[in-house]
Amino acid sequence: MKKETRVTHQPAVKPPEGNRSLVEPVYRSVKFSFPTIADSLKPEARQAGFEYMRDSNPTTRQLELLCAELQDRDDAIAVGTGMASIWLALLGSLTAGDRVVIFLESYRPSRVAVRKFLSRLGIAFDMVSIHDRPAIVEAFSKVDTKACLFESPTNPMLQIPDIEWLVDLARKQEITTILDNTFGGFHNHGQYAIDLFVHSLTKYAGGHGDAMGGIVIGKKERIRAIKPLAVNMGAVLDPGAAYLMLRGMKTYYLRYERHCENALAIAEYLSGRSEVTEVLYPGLKSHPAHALAKKQMHDYGGVVTFTLRNSDKEKTWDFIDRLKVFATASSLGSAESLVAPVELYLAMDLSEAERKAAGITEAKVRLAVGIEHIDDLKADLEQAFKSTFA
Amino acid sequence: MGFSTKQVHAGVTPDPVTGAILTPIYQSTTFVQESVDQYLSKGFSYSRSGNPTVRALEQKIAVLEGGVACTCYSTGMAAEQAVFQATLSAGDHAIISDVAYGGTYRLATKIYSRYGVEFTFVDTSNAKNVAKAIRDNTKLIFTETPANPTLKLSPIAAISEIARKKNIVHAVDNTFLTPYFQRPLELGAHISVHSTTKYFDGHNATTGGANVVDSKELDEKIRFHQNATGVIMSPFVAWLTLQGTKTLSLRMDRQSENAQVIAEFLEKHKKVDKVCYPGLKSFPQHALAKKQASGFGAMIWFEVKGGVKAGKKLMDSVKLCTLAENLGSVETLITHPVTMTHAIMAPAERLRVGITDGLVRLSVGLEDVEDLIADLKTALDRI
Questions:
Q1: What is the pLDDT of residue A258?
Q2: Helix residue ranges, H only, chain B
Q3: Spatial CB neighbours of B283, under 8 Å, sequence gap ≥ 6
Q4: Helix (H, G, I), strand (E, B), or coil: what is residue A77?
Q5: Do residues A105 and A154 lie in contact, with contact meaning Cβ atoms separated by under 8 Å?
Q6: Measuring CA to CA, how many Å separate A358 from each of A101, A140, B74, B201?
Q7: Residues B139, B145, B148, CA angle at the centre, nearest 5°?
Q8: Is B135 annotated as catalytic?
Q9: What is the CA A177 to chain-centroid distance, rounded?
């Protein structure tokens, strides 16, 4: 072989039998080959083999299998962002002429996707409050309703829908249920007959704020049905990002546990502050759906939303600006604690009436509690309270 | 600030240009100077001498150890070598723990002894032995506590006191406990040495090393050798280590909890002759472990009945515990020092320091402890 050819056909390094790297290599390869065309057409090659990275990649596949198992399902498709997973789940469940039910209490970009973009593709929607059972029953009974996208706890208001009731109702009408389970995490809600779970891997899965990703998880048949759409959409997760997710997942339980411990301690601390009128955290006994959350979940996540007393926009922003350990940013689920003004960052698409119905005001603050030492987080809030409310 | 807060925030400030919350990976060899007058005004010129991503990790580790400064390296051995280079010249003498990582032993006996440096291997578990071994030309005392693999402890404060009286540098390899559990500089040592490959990274993803020092002068000396010999850490490795360090205390807590449970299980097993773990009441230096560290770590060794053969059989029978030489990662790893890490040592020397034929070293990971015990139980029952 000429050396000019050698540089593109580099020598293979084959470890001896049984000698393996403890951490799977990152497969930075777009293309995969078979010895012969006939080999590439064998059923096992078609099912579990690799051809082109847009279809699948061993590193990404490892992440898919891991997440599916943790969520008590048997298959998954990883994509480039959480929003790509929302799109994949919605487009995979709906066609023109169909209707989707979404909720006022939900993640802003998901609402925008349905209200602004899906409607252009001939897909109608109903947006109701997650607490309005008659409205949900009515929306579900429409003949064209084919899917329902919901969250629990909801972002940013941490409301808890009755999942069993919702899923039972949907099943009767043959409506596909899609749970954005980013807040609850892979270890929660698997026991319910939900058709598709979506997660933003950017949050608790990666956990270190260093990579973006999303995933759709479900039973094999369902995932197989939407796989061609996924391959066609091409919203693939880069293997480098998949590797960072796999690395992040190794401490998933440790981190999630600490996020929850810290969030509960912060929620309790805030409940005792005179500058705060309301604290929303499902783990608090004072949360209206605490009993339901306790029944549905093992733990309650790392997000706490609260209301500042007599606070207008300026005062709320001032309070947020004074925080030092909490950085002002709109993500969540990473080691660092973050803070966001709810109305400005998470509700600008809603009308005034819709905001009112969802309970969103300019005095609301969302904390994405990190894994720092709890004393430092409390001290940071303390100094901001003291100076803003001096 | 609490340790958990420091491990997330220390050394890292949002990128001034974009606000990115994480330190960018500065994958650049060269840094442009605004003018000759302002040479190095931003602190960087060439990545061998300093790189912003590596610097962020150095600052984080310095804060976590309570040190004045830190330098990072491509491996733990590179860090150790920088300590030797900064403190020893031909004609000098150094004292080293008689039980130490095989690499330390090699560095001393195979490399530095060729350049006219003399070494004495001393049982540093008793500070008096150290005092006795000191000569006029002694320049370095290098201890490792807990020592690899026998977990013998050295009293850091007592040895540091002796070293300081004689103007000798005391370096402590703190890899097994990390600053979360043990803080050598606060106990009087001059240098805390780390293989960041272990608990700092924690995910078996990188190799790296670090030296945290108690004075600017010592940092300058060591940094000179880091730059001159070029044994630097790459920006990408520094970035991965920065990320890994964010969960250091969480991992250390869980891994040492697991280790305690496993040590207690092993102690009761009839195929096991002896278990060594600083958290066990039966550990000869249990009181010292409690005194100089706030946790016992995740390293265990035990002696299986039946010598080399039984040790090998155990290695071949475990499934979840992985046969590999590294330690400190989320995966539980198992090693047989006589055939693996310490194979190079003369058998008599091995026995003298307590590395017997049936000795098995366990680096306990983050798995569910029930699964680890089930795996060990099945394998032990097969012996």
A1: 97
A2: 3-9, 52-65, 76-87, 102-106, 127-133, 156-165, 178-181, 216-229, 235-245, 248-268, 286-292, 307-317, 347-352, 369-381
A3: B151, B276, B277, B289
A4: strand
A5: yes
A6: 16, 20, 53, 43
A7: 105
A8: no
A9: 15
Q: What's the residue count for chain A?
A: 390
Position A211, amino acid: A
CB-based contact (8 Å) between A258 and chain B? Answer: yes
**pLDDT per residue over B109-149, tens digit each?**
988 998 899 999 999 999 999 999 999 999 999 999 999 88
Taking a C-beta distance cutoff of 8 angstroms, is the pair B35, B28 a contact? Answer: no
Question: Which residue shows structure tokens 């990190």?
Answer: A370
Work out the pLDDT band at A247, boundaries 50, 70, 90: very high
Distance from CA of B12 to the nearest CA of A (A): 11
Helix (H, G, I), strand (E, B) or coil at B337: coil
Whose tokens are 């998949």? That residue is: A242
**Which of B9, B25, B322, B368 is most worth mutating to test chain A (most A CB atoms within 10 A of its CB)?**
B9
Angle at the Cα of B212 from the Cα atoms of B208 and B215, rounded to 5 degrees: 150
Backbone angles phi, psi at B159, to 5 degrees: -70, -40
The reply to whether B48 belongs to the active site is yes
Residue A340, H or E segment: strand A338-341
Distance from CA of A247 to the nearest CA of B (A): 7
Q: Position of tokens 């209707």?
A: A99
Instruction: Report the amino acid identity of residue A308.
Output: L
Residue A128: Cβ within 10 Å count? 20
Three-class SS state of B276: strand
* Contacts of residue A130, Cβ cutoff 8 Å, sequence gap at least 6: A103, A104, A105, A136, A150, A154, A159, A161
**Block residue for tokens 């205390």:** B249
Kindly list the residues from chain A whose CB atom is less than 8 angstroms away from the CB atom of residue B247: 251, 254-255, 335, 371
DSSP A17-63: TT---SSPPP---SB---SSHHHHHSHHHHHH---BTTT--HHHHHH
Q: What span, in angstroms and rounded, lies between the C-alpha atoms of A151 and A189?
A: 11
SS3 B47: coil
Coil/strand/helix, residue A327: strand
Q: Do A130 and A158 form a contact (C-beta atoms < 8 A)?
A: no
Question: What DSSP state is assigned to residue A162?
Answer: -
Residue of A22, A335, A376 with shortest CB distance to B324:
A22
Name residues whose C-beta falls within 8 Å of residue B66's C-beta, 6 or more positions apart in sequence: B179, B183, B185, B186
Contacting A residues, span 206-225, partner chain B, CB-CB under 8 Å? 208-210
| Tens-place pLDDT, residues A72-128 | 999 999 999 999 999 999 999 999 999 999 999 999 999 999 999 998 889 999 999
Pairing verdict, β B322-323 and B333-335? parallel
Q: Check if B180 is active-site.
A: no
A254 — contact with chain B (CB < 8 Å)? yes
Average pLDDT over residues A222-242: 91
ipTM of the complex: 0.76
